[in-house]
Amino acid sequence: MDWEGARLISGDVVEAVHVLKERDGGELQVHGSAGLVQTLLRHDLVDELRLMIYPVVLGQGKRLFADGTVPAGLKLVYSSTTSTGVLILSYDRVGDVKTGSFALDAAS
């Protein structure tokens, strides 16, 4: 691994992440592995999601939130837009999904 302080986890990833989260130290990051993110979400090991959304539509390819994704409530805690239109978003996990409505209020 080229990043200082980075470590490749092999074996039981869920157990290894549990152990790492219990230690004092920096944040744990996952870059570009939708499968690993799904595993961590399924085991409630994700505290924050940082997403970068690029202004393109591909129509196919890997999806971060594909079929089988564990439902989770999220709260937006940071947002920014780059000069090229990329959205940088940070969400905290906040428990169960709360649904709402897009209905407009009736005029009075």
Protein architecture, described:
The protein has 108 residues and is an alpha+beta fold. It has helices at residues 13-22, 34-42, and strands spanning 48-53, 74-81, 87-93. The protein has one domain (13-93): Dihydrofolate Reductase, subunit A (3-Layer(aba) Sandwich). It has two helices and three strands; from the N terminus they run ααβββ. The chain has a three-stranded antiparallel beta sheet with strand order 1-3-2, with no helix packed on it. Strand 2 (74-81) and strand 3 form a beta hairpin. The termini are far apart. The mean pLDDT is 86.
Please count the beta strands (DSSP E, at least 2 residues each).
3
Order of helices and strands: HHEEE
Mean pLDDT level: 86
Q: What sort of overall outline do the alpha carbons produce when their principal axes are compared?
A: globular
Tally the helices.
2
Helix content, binned percent = 10-25%
Please tag this protein with its features.
108 residues; alpha+beta; Dihydrofolate Reductase, subunit A; 3-stranded antiparallel sheet
Question: Can I get a quick summary?
Answer:
This protein is α+β, with helices and mostly antiparallel strands and 108 residues long. It contains 2 helices and 3 strands; from the N terminus they run H-H-E-E-E. The protein is globular, with a radius of gyration of 17 Å.
Strand and helix map with partners:
Blueprint: H1 13-22, H2 34-42, E1 48-53, E2 74-81, E3 87-93
Antiparallel strand pairs: 1-3, 2-3
